[in-house]
Amino acid sequence: IGKNGARIEMIRQESMATIKILPISKRLTAKELNHPDIVIQSISITGDWYQVALAFAYIEANLQLYKLGPKRMLL
User: Does the keyword RNA-binding apply (predicted)?
Assistant: First the structure.
């Protein structure tokens, strides 16, 4: 998530949580490729409660900023 996974790697480092992006089980359609916000992606976050909460907060903040517009700077 992020160019070359840079954003998710930053979240991993900052939160110290283990974050796994689970593979999508099907090939994406052209519509899904053009509108990634309609694709449901599952992730796994593990660690102590603080690490998980921090990682979740970072991910949620990034998703909210993404929804504001593609030209916004994300965390």
Answer: yes
